[in-house]
Amino acid sequence: MPKIPRTTGREAITAFKKAGFEVVRVNGSHHIMKKKDRRFRLSVPVHAGKTLGTGLLKSLIKTAGLTVDEFIKLL
After folding, report:
1. What is the pTM of this model?
2. What are the C-alpha distances in Å from 26 to residues 5, 33, 34, 74?
3. Structural domains present in the chain
């Protein structure tokens, strides 16, 4: 299993958009993303110049139904 990449919230949103998710609303600094055929949502924090924690990013990738390899290819 490859190492979790260090990405910002904006980079993660771009990768999740490529995977079929779309931003449905913004609540403060958190972008809420959904996929049309899924019931769950992703809440991606976007703070200027800050990277996402590895635990949070791993959880978002897992919730999205992706593997770390697939996520890295989407970056």
Report:
1. 0.90
2. 24, 9, 12, 22
3. 9-74 (3.30.920.30)
